[in-house]
Amino acid sequence: MALQLYGFWRSNAAFRVRVALALKRLPYEEIGVDLLAGRQFDAAYAEVNAGHMVPTLVHDGHRVFQSLAIIEYLDELYPEPRLVPGDAKDRAHVRALASVSAADSHPLVVPRVRKHLAQAFGADKESIEAWCRHWGEEGLATYERMLGQRPASPFVMGDTPTLADICIAGQVVIADLYGIDVSAFGRVAALSERCFALPAFADAHPKRQPGFLA
């Protein structure tokens, strides 16, 4: 087995994959791609990922893109512990929760969106950060409502974390980066506390990565 992960310290999508790899105890080499410096557009990286994004997982020469696809790929190859349930109803629930962050909230705060806000609409730093806080809070509020309908005990699907817990924790990472008070979302705060008590989550946090800029 040979695993490489192209990522970036701040990337929420790379955070998700780092957690999954850690939960499955899979060793890997991480290769940094500085998104803030635009290195994702370098010709060499374009050969790796035509979408100019991270993360990219390379497994025995095979490239896999998009964090959710990567995690499901890993789950099929290395099924213990399961991150996506086998039961169809539970699997749909986990995927729906994962998509709140990965498809609805996080894509609105990524570097290319922030850059477009500045270039196309003249948004200044304060306006862009307010935009990011808004969408970060929207994701947290959605999770709070969903966890109210089906509480996590202690994690979304029971005793062990799943893809859903990884994405909810990722939404809390966005909150950390933009100074959002997570305590206003009690169920999310409690779940994320249980997640980040685990080394797999805590060690994957952007603030613990080598490139972190305080």
TrEMBL record:
* Record-stated family: Belongs to the GST superfamily. Zeta family.
GST C-terminal domain ranges (all copies): 87-213
Q: Which gene encodes it?
A: sspA_1
Keywords linked to the UniProt accession: Isomerase
The GST N-terminal domain covers: 1-82
Q: Which GO terms describe its biological process?
A: glutathione metabolic process; L-phenylalanine catabolic process
E.C. number: 5.2.1.4
The GO terms this record gives for MF are: glutathione transferase activity; maleylacetoacetate isomerase activity; maleylpyruvate isomerase activity
Residue ranges annotated as coiled coil are none
State the protein's name: Maleylpyruvate isomerase
